[in-house]
From TrEMBL, chains A, B:
<dbReference type="InterPro" id="IPR046335">
    <property type="entry name" value="LacI/GalR-like_sensor"/>
</dbReference>
<dbReference type="InterPro" id="IPR010982">
    <property type="entry name" value="Lambda_DNA-bd_dom_sf"/>
</dbReference>
<feature type="domain" description="HTH lacI-type">
    <location>
        <begin position="9"/>
        <end position="63"/>
    </location>
</feature>
<dbReference type="GO" id="GO:0000976">
    <property type="term" value="F:transcription cis-regulatory region binding"/>
</dbReference>
<keyword id="KW-0805">Transcription regulation</keyword>
<dbReference type="InterPro" id="IPR000843">
    <property type="entry name" value="HTH_LacI"/>
</dbReference>
<keyword id="KW-0804">Transcription</keyword>
<dbReference type="Pfam" id="PF00356">
    <property type="entry name" value="LacI"/>
</dbReference>
<protein>
    <submittedName>
        <fullName>Ribose operon repressor</fullName>
    </submittedName>
</protein>
<dbReference type="GO" id="GO:0003700">
    <property type="term" value="F:DNA-binding transcription factor activity"/>
</dbReference>
<keyword id="KW-0238">DNA-binding</keyword>
<dbReference type="Pfam" id="PF13377">
    <property type="entry name" value="Peripla_BP_3"/>
</dbReference>
<dbReference type="InterPro" id="IPR028082">
    <property type="entry name" value="Peripla_BP_I"/>
</dbReference>
DNA sequence: ATGCGTCGTGGGAACGTTACCGCGCGTCCC
DNA sequence: GGGACGCGCGGTAACGTTCCCACGACGCAT
């Protein structure tokens, strides 16, 4: 009469063993009310004695909640996004949810495929860093979702979580000014990326607030990679400039590339060139000199994104947009020009 | 008579629209045989016209295959594991599977919790880098799985994928010897980790093959972190040693830490101390000097792991253990002592 | 012409769970 | 004292898919 040996125990097995109906067993297992303490205990004991484990597939099927969340980021291999993923994963685990992770490689087609996969997997919702130029897939997504990162601005209605670029730039510019670099050169990302404009605007605003004409700032564009930063820095160095050069890179990878270009040009950082980055990736710590940078709260971002996504799933419109503050990390890549040391610094005798 | 508007179309909707039964629709959608081309086309057209997307939950429920794979690694934030995850994710996507990613933090309790989550999610199988000292959870896992990384040796029966430590060490030692460092000091991981013994054994074997007594090698242990490497290097430097020091670190993080310790001691790499690492993490490229290292094929490892896992799931015992070769990356952290340049090198005039 | 096998299709059951309804019982209130 | 109501529980119908079996039609060999 016994069922086939190698089958995972179901709620029916639990119910039989506890001598109740499966409805009652379900109620006990769900921690629901309307049940005697005694019955609940019996069911729980029976469950653990047969080694029962709830089948999430069946639950998802019936209740419409699969207990899975999707995360679509450009590249899990990128340390910043890895931090985000980790934060999201930990927060999801707190609520008993699992995370489906996908890398889009900034490729709209891949992104679309991933979104389809998420829909078919019946995830409860998704956290997405959308590729810049195509929001159609997102419109059709049909599931609760929340945007993460800087592309969020285009979607007025959906919630988003991102880092506070304005505050971050403020942090960096204040430090730069205090060290005697009131008008740094800028190494920015590709013009197509939304984040570029955000960053540039913040710098401009800061300049204007200090009565510095933003137009005097040198600007170079490049890919958000080490190589992109290296090339941009090379171009910056080719410009006929006298004295100390200061560079504010929009991304740590680019900052590291810039550092390499400086070295390759026979110059030294921070003696000849000051560099500050933006992101806070671990590599910056291990570079020489250590990269001074503004760290985005990657893990927090991921965690808050999951929280916001739950609000979205439960139709609690608690918050719409969250911008998390960034944190300054001072290491050795910035020269302090405010103290008048006898170095080969051009004019600019400040302080 | 129309169903409620905001419902995802099911296979029944497709069947009705195509004028066939749901069985036939299912056959058409599954690409099965025993169906007329005409019928198949009608069904496919109906499906795309109503925007049908297969419900993976229901499929998983009925067929027992959820289309999901689990990945349990120590930390997605670790660049090596991120590469593994990426390789696994891409390979899984090729077969239409999704990846559930979990970080265990080398914590047996977390690992156990993750394995439980995977079981409840009814994943088809899992790729696991188990924590060192506890295999009980794995025994009870009950689902197909495959081991990844160096802890695999303890499980004789299960398939595993890892990097070829012996070949990697061979690569490193050969290079070291060719550059005049026949007996490098070793910075190894904690004694508790399985990988440590593997690494040490490979070095010993290489030494014996060259008639070098392994006992003369200085050895320091430490955590697999930058800080661990820094401390180990400091201790190494405290030993009364003359001339050039050469260090073979079992992990890039430690190698980078060692590099920092060298700098902090007022010494220079590679002039005073030669360092070679093992892993191939990106940070090594950005350190100064660039870290010479042996790179593990992280992405391949992940991809092959998924392939192996599929074999396991389908009960195809194709292969049991795979060791993927590593690749040498020469950068600037190794001095070449084989060419007799007038440096402050002690004796040891080889080559 | 009859039997048999195959092909295309339809009808149902099953996967494991939760949602819903109903039923008996005790309690409280008018 | 009788009706209303809440509580604890059981039975059953879904959820969307695949699997299995049955059935008619047809081709082929007997």
């Amino acid at each position: 009469m016994s069922k086939s040996r190698n089958r995972r125990p179901t709620i029916i097995d639990v119910a039989e063993r506890a001598g109740v109906s499966k409805s009652t067993a379900a109620r006990a297992l769900a921690g629901s009310s309307n049940i005697t303490d005694d019955t609940r205990d019996r069911v729980l004991k029976a469950a653990s004695s047969v080694g029962y484990e709830r089948n999430s597939l069946a639950v998802g099927m019936r209740s419409g909640r699969s207990g899975m969340l999707g995360l679509v980021i450009p590249d899990i291999t990128n340390p910043f996004w890895a931090e985000v993923a980790r934060g999201a994963q930990d927060k999801a685990a707190e609520s008993g949810s699992s995370l489906l992770v996908f890398s889009s490689d900034w490729d709209a087609a891949k992104e679309a495929a991933h979104l389809r996969a998420l829909r078919q997997a019946r995830v409860d919702g998704a956290i997405i860093n959308p590729v810049a130029d195509n929001f159609d897939d997102l419109d059709r997504f049909g599931l609760p979702f929340l945007l993460i990162g800087s592309s969020a601005e285009r979607f007025a209605e959906t919630s988003s979580v991102g880092s506070d670029i304005a505050q971050a730039v403020q942090l960096g510019m204040d430090l730069l000014v205090s060290k005697g670099h009131p008008a740094p050169s800028l190494i920015l990302g590709p013009k197509s990326r939304l984040a570029r404009a955000r960053f540039l605007r913040a710098v401009h605003e800061h300049c204007i607030a200090r009565d510095v004409d933003p137009a005097i700032l040198d600007v170079e564009d490049g890919e958000y990679t080490v190589e992109g930063g290296r090339i941009a820095m090379r171009r910056l160095l080719e410009r006929d400039r006298v004295g100390h050069v200061c560079v504010f890179a929009a991304n740590d990878m680019m900052a590291i590339g810039a550092m390499m270009a400086v070295r390759e040009a026979g110059l030294r950082c921070p003696d000849d060139v000051s560099i500050i980055g933006f992101d806070g990736i671990p590599s910056g710590e291990f570079a020489w000199p250590g990269l001074t940078t503004i760290a985005k709260p990657g893990r927090d971002l991921g965690a808050r994104a999951v929280e916001g996504l739950f609000d979205e799933i439960e139709h609690r419109p608690e918050h719409r947009r969250i911008y998390l503050p960034c944190r300054l990390i001072e290491r050795g890549s910035l020269a302090d020009l405010s103290v008048p040391t006898p170095k080969r610094v051009s004019g600019a005798g400040r302080g």
